């Protein structure tokens, strides 16, 4: 059997900013759970297996949501922070006879379900070319002000990038870095930063606005709208969305009716 490429899909968060009784990872998007769409996107980009990290006691719920997954799914139990959840997922992979044969692992947020296949493929290609820790990034589009008490100043956004997932890694390197971080303590908000902390170089590739993170309720509405725009275009991809959107009438709907 060929070497696995593992998608470690993070889905053990509380979703406090999203709110509501149903966790955002299992909210409906395109008639499926958000987490199921995320796993499909990773499979479309070339991942052969998924490990989905979920909150303790939620395994059966997620098993149902992922019953029709195109790739085999295993479950790990999350921790109280994202970095703890990632550590637990990497440990499960390391303990598996099959999954520990993987040289590459891609760590992805379940709540970035619409990441285009071409971005996943480019992360894998960068690893193939020798990178050890890779992340997609997008330019910052807003004017940014840095605040200091009650004063603030504009900072140069041309040097800033917003960080997305999936982030790709040499599996043994990221497993060791997270093991050390777990033992020593310290905080990171993404996984390339964990590698960087231990001296590894981070490679950047171009991400996609399609990989938006569902953080607040409006983000789910935006994701649903993007999916509708791609209907009939096959599996969603940033390029197809751009093609479909470019064919759409740019006038607001109230002016089109006239
Ligand atoms: N203990 C945690 C915290 C977060 N995550 C996952 O990491 C991703 C990014 O986190 P974020 O969107 O910030 O999710 P939450 O922590 O759920 O949101 P909030 O901060 O609003 O509570 C999500 O897919 C989330 O499920 C996780 O697996 N384990
Ligand atoms: C990992 C991440 O998606 C990079 O943007 C993000 O940091 C996770 O979100 P959080 O709100 O910091 O947990």
Automatic annotation (TrEMBL):
Annotated GO biological processes are: isopentenyl diphosphate biosynthetic process, methylerythritol 4-phosphate pathway
Catalyzed reactions per annotation: 2-C-methyl-D-erythritol 4-phosphate + CTP + H(+) = 4-CDP-2-C-methyl-D-erythritol + diphosphate
Q: Where is this site: Transition state stabilizer?
A: 17, 24
One Pfam family from the record: IspD
Basic residues bias locations: 236-245
Q: What is its EC number?
A: 2.7.7.60
Q: Which CDD domains match?
A: CDP-ME_synthetase
What InterPro entries does UniProt report for this protein, alphabetically? IspD (IPR001228), IspD/TarI (IPR034683), IspD/TarI_cytidylyltransf_bact (IPR050088), ISPD_synthase_CS (IPR018294), Nucleotide-diphossugar_trans (IPR029044)
Q: Which SUPFAM superfamilies match?
A: Nucleotide-diphospho-sugar transferases
Instruction: Name the PROSITE patterns for this protein.
Output: ISPD
Q: In which pathway does it act?
A: Isoprenoid biosynthesis; isopentenyl diphosphate biosynthesis via DXP pathway; isopentenyl diphosphate from 1-deoxy-D-xylulose 5-phosphate: step 2/6
Site: Positions MEP for the nucleophilic attack. Where? 157, 213
GO molecular function per UniProt: 2-C-methyl-D-erythritol 4-phosphate cytidylyltransferase activity
- Stretch list, region Disordered: 231-258
Q: Keywords in UniProt for this one?
A: Isoprene biosynthesis, Nucleotidyltransferase, Transferase
Checking HAMAP family in the record gives: IspD
Functional summary from the UniProt entry: Catalyzes the formation of 4-diphosphocytidyl-2-C-methyl-D-erythritol from CTP and 2-C-methyl-D-erythritol 4-phosphate (MEP).
NCBIfam families on file: ispD
Task: Give the similarity note.
Answer: Belongs to the IspD/TarI cytidylyltransferase family. IspD subfamily.
Query: Which named protein is this?
Result: 2-C-methyl-D-erythritol 4-phosphate cytidylyltransferase
Q: Which organism is it from?
A: Acidipropionibacterium jensenii
Gene this chain is encoded by: ispD
């Amino acid at each position: 059997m060929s070497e696995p490429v593992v998608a470690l899909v993070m889905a053990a968060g509380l979703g406090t900013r999203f709110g509501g009784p149903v966790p955002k990872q299992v909210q409906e998007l395109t008639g499926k759970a958000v987490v199921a769409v995320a796993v499909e996107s990773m499979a479309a980009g070339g991942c052969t297996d998924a490990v989905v990290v979920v909150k303790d006691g939620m395994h059966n719920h997620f098993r149902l949501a992922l019953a029709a997954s195109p790739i085999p799914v295993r479950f790990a139990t999350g921790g109280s922070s994202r970095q703890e959840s990632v550590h637990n997922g990497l440990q499960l992979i390391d303990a598996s006879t099959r999954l520990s044969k993987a040289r590459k692992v891609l760590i992805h947020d379940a709540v970035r379900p619409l990441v285009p296949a071409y971005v996943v493929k480019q992360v894998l290609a960068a690893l193939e070319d020798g990178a050890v820790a890779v992340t997609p990034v997008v330019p910052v589009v807003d004017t940014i002000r840095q605040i200091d008490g009650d004063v603030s100043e504009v900072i140069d956004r041309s040097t800033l990038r917003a960080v997305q997932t999936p982030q790709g890694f040499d599996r043994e390197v990221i497993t060791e870095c997270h093991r050390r971080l777990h033992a020593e303590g310290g905080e990171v908000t993404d996984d390339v930063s964990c590698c960087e902390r231990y001296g590894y170089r981070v490679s950047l590739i171009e991400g996609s606005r399609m990989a938006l993170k569902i953080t607040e309720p409006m983000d789910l509405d935006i994701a649903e709208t993007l999916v509708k725009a791609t209907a009939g275009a096959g599996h969603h991809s940033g390029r197809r969305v751009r093609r479909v959107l470019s064919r759409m009438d740019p006038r607001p709907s109230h002016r089109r009716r006239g």
